[in-house]
Structure formats: structure tokens, C-alpha cells
């Protein structure tokens, strides 16, 4: 079977809600990463056969097929098509997998997988709330209610269920959050993000500056400061401090065939080794990465010890903690440069964002195999295994 290769992977630095990226239209922000992918790889823009863009809140400025809008805001020719997809938090990880499938099937040779989310300008859940406020129906259908009577699908409640099931305390979650900030701060100070971040210009009272540093990292975080944040549920373990940060951002990954490598003189960063997506319990919801990883490793003929680095999205601290406990992984290999608790979780952009971090970290640390997974609304999970080249 033909193989799929990652040639380039980039992201913007995260912007906090109402922060440095708040002035960027999401189509323009996504266009910055598309342009950077083309420029850094050196490929002819006209050679791009498709752009697959993940985005969760597809309304307002992220409506009107934001993938195509980003192409039209970029330097790519108008002949480049695009599509926007929603697999909730895994949207742009699924974009990578769709791009790889297109290449591996021989259908296409050069595809950009990408994602964008401006959670400042298009708040999470805002599209559904507008319909509800207008009295235009409910998210949960009558047949869903019949199958899951009286059950509210909630990621927050799913995180609390995971913490209870796997025995994680508030202190466990806060300690994990602190480590996320410390690792992200250290990676920033070392310059580990420099190869993956695309700097974007922003206007400040002091003039135009380049935003190239993740805005959400708390360099002075302590257990006391994290522990002082109010719990979201009385008697629970989840707070805003041990959950992912609302974030603005965009990211992109260039996926090509072996034929494209030769034809365009490209140098691959990694080979895509395994693609897996599974569905599970929609109530606990966020636990599915554990079981999806089991399936991915089995299909790849690998064990967790074969994996050098893992990126497990930090939607809520209990998720990567439970994943680590279930698979028997090494905490030292998990989210080595911090995760969404410190760096932010720009929903539809997180999949390609995490892949950018994973691929570059494998090169920096000399690892061979990397595994990426994340929990997704509705009880779904993607797992992607890559091999550094």
C-alpha cells in the first residue's frame, strides 16, 4: 500500500480568550498557517490538491465553509479546493487521517490538513445556543432521549466520572496541571517551539509586534495558585485550572505521497504509521482514547513501550492521567512540552497543533515513534502513530 508522509507541520502560538489573537479573523489566521506550510516546504502552491480544515464552532465568522474561506484569504491559487469537517476536538486530527487516506489510496498526492478556532470571536457552543434561544429545537433528539433517557451529554461530567472511576483526587489533577505549565514554560525558554510556531503580526498600544509565544502559560504557577481556583462542581475535582484553556489558534500539516516527495524534491519529517478512530460510551465520553490506543497498538503490532513520545490532549487532567494508567505508559514521555492546560485547546485546531508539537519533539529528542490521541465529544477518539524520518 502507498505510504503517507508529513513534510511540514506548523501552528500559531496560542492566544488567550480576548487576548493577542482576538483581532484576527479566523479565516485570515488559518491562512497564515497555509501560507507558512507552502513557504517552508518550498512546494508549488498549485500542487496542493485539497485543504481539509477542522473547525468545531462553524457559525458566524467560522461559518460559510471556513476551509474554503481560509484558502481564499491565503496565497494559494483559487484552484485549490477545501472542505471543513467537525469531529469535535479531534477535527483536525481527523483532517490528518483523511489527508493520509487520500494519499494512501492514490487519490491525491499533496493535501494540507489544518484546523482553526477563534474561541474569542465564535464562543464554544454559541451556534447551538442561538438555535435554542430562538426556540428552534433541542440538541438531543427524541430518539436519543429514548435511548439515553434523562441523560445529559456533558464533557465536564464525563471528566468527573473518569476521575471518580480511576481514583484521581483534586490534588492529583492540580499536580498534573502544574507539571503542564512547568513543561510548557521550560520548552518555551529552551526555544523548543521555534520550529513549529508561525509568528503573526498583532497591533498593540506600543505598535505592531509578532505574536510567537503561547499566551496561556503561567510561568509562576504553584500548587497553591492552582489549588485556589474554585471547583466547577461542589465535591468534585475539576476546576478551570486543571482543565484546558479556551484558546484562539490555527495549525496545519502537509501530507504527501512518495511520488510527491520525489516530484517536488521534498524532505519528509515523518511517516504516518497507523490511523485509528473508535467510538465508545457517549456518557463518560472522554474515556475513549484509552481503548482507541489499545486498538491502534494492536493493529500496528506495537506495545506502548515501543512509543517514544505521546501527545494526549489535556482537555481535563483526569483524561491523560487515566490514559497513562490504563496503557502503562511513562509519564516522562507524555506531553513533554506541556499540553492544553498550559498551552490552550483551540478545539478544531488542536489535532494538527498537537501533531506539529509531536513531530518536532521527536526530531529534537531523537525519538522514533510518536502517538497522538484525544478525547472527542460524543465518546469518539482518534489515534495517529507516526515514525520520525
Automatic annotation (TrEMBL):
Catalytic activity, EC: 2.3.1.16
Pfam family, one: Thiolase_N
Domain of life: Bacteria
SUPFAM superfamilies, A to Z: Thiolase-like (SSF53901)
Active site: 89 (acyl-thioester intermediate), 345 (proton acceptor), 375 (proton acceptor)
Secretion signal span: none
Entry-linked NCBIfam families: AcCoA-C-Actrans, PRK06504.1
Full protein name: Acetyl-CoA C-acyltransferase
Lineage of origin: Bacteria, Pseudomonadati, Pseudomonadota, Alphaproteobacteria, Sphingomonadales
